[in-house]
């Protein structure tokens, strides 16, 4: 937190607008890039979506109310026809009696009803609780994918950052070489004027100066390109003259457990699949709910009565699917196979990670050894070029010989800086690969 406040303080100064400091560290570049990278905003969006989804699932525990209306016309309705049997009459009396139907009510062909239905879950077998857990795990995995993307962003910044540093060191060495050549050219000009040196010596030095100036221009253009790329990555307008600070990271010989976001995502994926198994188990559990209906219709519950009447119905319902032809078992087997796939992916990632760490270790050992030799070569090259300068002044060697010795010294110094930068990058790459930078 203090580091973040410090960086913000660096960028807010003087005239009330953001200013880029003259010197940037690798850590500053990482933080600036992450804070402005569009993918980083997805974390907040995913958190909001997860919160809304949890509230949505919580509504499963609340009563569900529905208003319904219906109007219908039936081609036929229920009828109850009751015949009255003839009374018993003595035989002598010849009277014919016709059965008379009883006057029973008949429901209307057109029927209407309006109802308000209430449904309340008392126990859903734990489906809602498990679904909330599964959805939460899914959102966490999506957030972890953002962390993986941000980690790759850091790797890209590392490459560009050290490319700029290499250009900076190259510029410094070329400037020193150019100054030395210009000083020697001034001496040669004076010697030519007095007839002590040939004009060809002056031309040799001028040609070498032009060559060095070309190298400086090429280096500057390359640096400008990398600075523009870094500016885009961190969303800051960096000047070409920006100075980047060489990281000084100490690598412990003790083994450090990797903290890569990919490893955490694999664990999250396995946990999600296990939660999905629990959700499948919940679908098999019995469900208990209550319901109620308040209605007004014609006819009402007495369907033989042709008039508008209010009514209500209340009750409870128990449902339990005790057999689904082993569908749950098969679904769990599929999830188990997917867990095995995640394990294989994690093993592959671990293997590649160990290979990359070993490569970084080898690079560090190589550049540490080269740097030791570089110092020895530089010391010898300085002595040789100093001797060549004296020999040239005394007319023992030509200007071309002197320039060759000077270039060899400059190349030795450049090799040292290149190896120093590559050693620092190997250390940073090692820490980044571990996931602790």
Entry keywords:
alpha+beta; 437 residues; disordered N terminus; 8 helices; 10 strands; Outer membrane efflux proteins (OEP); 14% strand; elongated
What's the helix and strand layout?
Blueprint: H1 2-11, E1 12-13, E2 17-18, E3 23-24, H2 26-36, H3 41-58, E4 64-73, E5 83-84, E6 100-101, E7 110-123, H4 127-193, H5 199-234, E8 243-244, H6 261-284, E9 287-298, E10 309-319, H7 327-393, H8 399-434
Parallel strand pairs: 3-8
Antiparallel strand pairs: 1-2, 4-7, 5-6, 7-9, 9-10
Helix pairs in contact: 2-4, 3-4, 4-5, 4-6, 4-8, 6-7, 7-8
Short description:
It contains 8 helices and 10 strands.
Q: Care to describe what's here?
A:
With 437 residues, this protein is of the alpha+beta class. It has a single domain, classed as Outer membrane efflux proteins (OEP) (Up-down Bundle). Helix content is 62%, strand content 14%. The protein has a four-stranded antiparallel β-sheet with strand order 4-7-9-10, with no helix packed on it. A two-stranded antiparallel sheet has the order 1-2. A two-stranded parallel sheet has the order 3-8. Helix 4 packs antiparallel against helix 5, helix 4 packs antiparallel against helix 6 and helix 7 runs antiparallel to helix 8 (399-434).
């Amino acid at each position: 937190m203090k580091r973040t406040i410090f960086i913000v303080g660096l960028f807010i100064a003087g005239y009330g607008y953001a200013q880029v400091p003259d010197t940037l560290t690798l850590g500053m570049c990482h933080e600036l890039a992450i804070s402005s990278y569009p993918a980083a905003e997805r974390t907040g969006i995913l958190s909001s979506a997860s919160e809304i989804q949890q509230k949505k699932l919580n509504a499963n525990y609340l009563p569900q109310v529905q208003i319904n209306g219906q109007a219908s016309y039936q081609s036929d309705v229920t009828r109850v026809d009751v015949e009255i049997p003839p009374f018993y009459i003595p035989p002598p009396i010849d009277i014919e009696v016709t059965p008379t139907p009883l006057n029973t009510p008949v429901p209307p062909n057109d029927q209407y009803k309006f109802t308000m239905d209430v449904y309340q879950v008392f126990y859903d077998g734990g489906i809602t609780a498990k679904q909330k857990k599964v959805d939460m795990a899914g959102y966490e995995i999506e957030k972890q994918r953002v962390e993986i993307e941000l980690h790759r962003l850091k790797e890209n910044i590392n490459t560009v950052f050290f490319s700029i540093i290499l250009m900076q060191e190259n510029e410094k060495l070329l400037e020193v070489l150019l100054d030395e050549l210009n000083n020697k050219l001034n001496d040669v000009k004076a010697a030519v004027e007095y007839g002590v040196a040939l004009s060809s010596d002056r031309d040799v030095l001028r040609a070498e100066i032009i060559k060095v100036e070309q190298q400086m221009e090429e280096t500057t253009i390359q640096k400008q390109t990398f600075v523009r790329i870094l500016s885009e990555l961190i969303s800051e307008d960096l000047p070409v003259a920006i100075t980047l600070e060489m990281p000084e990271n100490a690598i412990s010989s003790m083994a450090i457990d990797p903290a890569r976001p990919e490893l955490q995502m694999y664990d999250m994926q396995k946990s999600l699949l296990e939660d999905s198994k629990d959700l499948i188990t919940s679908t098999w559990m019995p469900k208990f709910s209550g319901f109620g209906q308040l209605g007004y219709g014609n006819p009402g519950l007495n369907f033989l009565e042709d008039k508008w009447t209010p009514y209500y119905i209340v009750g409870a319902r128990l449902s339990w699917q005790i057999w689904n032809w082993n569908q749950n078992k098969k679904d769990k087997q599929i999830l188990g196979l997917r867990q095995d796939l995640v394990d294989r992916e994690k093993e592959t990632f671990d293997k590649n990670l160990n290979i990359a760490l070993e490569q970084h270790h080898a690079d560090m050992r190589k550049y540490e050894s080269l740097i030791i030799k570089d110092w020895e070569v530089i010391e010898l090259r300085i002595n040789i070029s100093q001797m060549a300068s004296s020999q040239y002044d005394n007319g023992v060697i030509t200007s071309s010989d002197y320039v060759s010795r000077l270039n060899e010294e400059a190349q030795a110094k450049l090799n040292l800086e290149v190896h120093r930068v590559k050693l620092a990058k190997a250390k940073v790459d090692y820490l980044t690969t571990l996931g602790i930078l």
